[in-house]
Design goal:
Blueprint lengths: L8 H7 L29 H10 L6 H10 L1 H13 L5 H19 L2 H8 L3 H47 L4 H22 L6 E3 L20 E3 L20 E3 L20 E3 L20 E3 L12 H4 L5 E3 L20 E3 L20 E3 L22 E3 L20 E3 L10 H5 L2 H31 L6 H20 L1 H14 L1
Parallel strand pairs: 1-2, 2-3, 3-4, 4-5, 5-6, 6-7, 7-8, 8-9, 9-10
Helix pairs in contact: 3-7, 4-7, 5-6, 5-7
């Protein structure tokens, strides 16, 4: 289990340059590595090139060496976690915890419950404990990776700062001036607002801000606030006071949560919280009914709020890629204005059954959900407006026949799937060939269904073969009717009365 370039770019870069195991012995990993001479080889891949472009000091051997020593514990933990094996899925963990709770309840409850707990298979209990332990170790390792990424950023800044002092000939006035400039800018904005000046747009991006002052929430006329690429760890509840705010950009900070008061921003149209450490979005986000664009990518989201789609009816763009989503809530299907949905690089097991209700959807990216994404729901063919679709890097074996109804599809990626329908040679010919192939399958499926219904209707209308009992019943009934018509009702009534008298 290696840290990914998307979630831990700096850590991935540093660990990829370790020639061998760290010089730290563990019971599971008795080998050794030399940490003093990491390889400063040329960056490979778009992610590394982009990273080095932003942090050129990574090319410097002394900086890389200092950063490597700072994550020796991560290198050791990585080897240990790889020996443990893959992390169990959440359903398996939940079932194991439930079994252990039942056993624990048997130890503390009455005699009957205790007897029931004793009947539990000890091997199952042992296996459940192992599953829970493995999950906890993976969780601890994930926390270690997050802390290491922060540590590396700090080490890098310190290393670069030290080198700047040496080259400049002394003094850290530059750093002090920078921090002073940040404070002065915030103070100036707040002062203008207090003096009654019109402040509609505030841009505090790239200013090393660690704190967003509460008084910012009192700038009543503010329409746009950008505090991207800072070091914010939280957003004050006072943000809910910006009742006229239309744009809020909080990207690339260190946020682990958002305040519930964000739901008070009823005029908010654009919300960018990408590149943080968010594990959940507040349920109140669905109260931001004017939202047109929501970007929550590059976080650690395990799920989206259950009712997120019920009130975000104006949302056109939803970006939730590079998270840990295992499913999308069914309420997403209520976002009838949605034009773009990007959910690539998650852990999606599928799509909501009613996904076809997103009739306005034009671009859908479900790529790189790997072994988790295996099929598409039958309603997928109802996405009549779909123009761009990326299903690459999944485990889809067959496209549903309804796929042939997506006649507006212009761009399609299906590579890195074990596809049998359509066959590889059709996929290789491009989107037009796939459209034609699936359209034929859809037409054949419709024809077969019509034929089946016609056959069923014919069987229902044809005379049934009667059993002897049914034949006799109908015959007696017919004779009775014939007798009434021939003899006449009056005679029958008189005959019935005569018989009654005889009895």
């Amino acid at each position: 289990m290696d840290p990914t370039p998307q979630s831990h770019p700096i850590l991935n870069y540093v660990l990829s340059r370790l020639p061998s195991l760290p010089a730290v012995r563990t019971p599971r990993s008795p080998r050794e590595r030399d940490l003093e001479q990491p390889s400063p080889r040329t960056p490979s891949g778009a992610a590394e090139i982009d990273l080095v472009g932003r942090m050129p000091g990574l090319r410097h051997p002394s900086v890389l060496s200092a950063m490597t020593r700072a994550v020796a514990d991560v290198a050791s933990a990585r080897d240990a976690i790889n020996l443990l094996g893959p992390r169990p899925d959440h359903e398996q963990v939940d079932a194991s915890r439930e079994l252990l709770l039942l056993a624990d309840a048997g130890d503390k409850a009455d005699a009957d419950a205790e007897d029931k707990a004793k009947e539990l298979d000890e091997e199952k209990l042992a296996a459940s404990r192992e599953v829970v332990r493995l999950d906890e170790e993976h969780e601890a390792y994930g926390a270690l990776l997050r802390d290491a990424e922060e540590k590396l950023e700090h080490v890098y800044r310190m290393a670069m700062h030290g080198r700047d002092i040496k080259e400049a000939g002394g003094g850290d006035a530059k750093g002090e001036e920078g921090s002073g400039a940040v404070d002065e800018e915030v103070v100036r904005v707040l002062k203008d607002a207090e003096e009654g000046k019109v402040v509609e747009r505030v841009n505090l991006a790239d200013r090393q801000l660690r704190l967003l002052p509460e008084p910012v929430g009192r700038i009543r006329g503010l329409l746009a606030l950008d505090v991207s690429r800072n070091q914010l760890k939280d957003v004050p509840d006072a943000i809910g006071g910006l009742e006229h705010l239309e744009e809020l950009r909080l990207a690339s900070n260190d946020l682990v949560s958002l305040p519930d008061s964000i739901g008070l921003l009823s005029n908010l149209k654009i919300l960018d919280v990408s590149g943080n450490r968010l594990r959940v979005l507040p349920d109140t986000i669905s109260k931001c009914r004017s939202l047109v664009e929501l970007d929550a990518s590059y976080n650690a989201l395990a799920y989206l709020p259950t009712g997120i789609g019920h009130e975000l009816v104006h949302l056109q763009t939803l970006r939730v890629h590079l998270n840990k989503l295992r499913s999308l809530p069914s309420s997403v299907c209520e976002m009838r204005s949605l034009r773009l949905l990007d959910a690539h690089f998650n852990e999606l097991h599928g799509l909501p059954a009613a996904i076809g209700q997103l009739s306005a959807l034009e671009t859908l990216d479900l790529s790189s959900n790997f072994s988790d994404m295996r099929d598409l729901p039958p309603s997928f063919g109802d996405l009549a407006g779909l123009r761009e679709l990326d299903l690459s890097n999944n485990q889809i074996r067959a496209l549903p026949d309804c796929f042939g109804r997506l006649d507006k599809l212009e761009r399609l990626r299906l590579d890195q799937n074990p596809l049998a329908v359509p066959p590889p040679e059709v996929v290789a010919d491009g989107v037009v060939a796939v459209n034609e192939y699936m359209a034929r399958r859809w037409a054949e499926a419709v024809a077969e269904e019509e034929q089946r219904r016609a056959s069923a209707a014919a069987v229902a209308e044809s005379p049934r073969v009667s059993t002897p009992r049914e034949w006799l019943t109908r015959s007696v009934s017919s004779l009775s009717t014939w007798a009434v018509k021939v003899v006449g009702q009056d005679n029958v009534d008189e005959e019935d009365e005569f018989l009654q008298q005889q009895f």
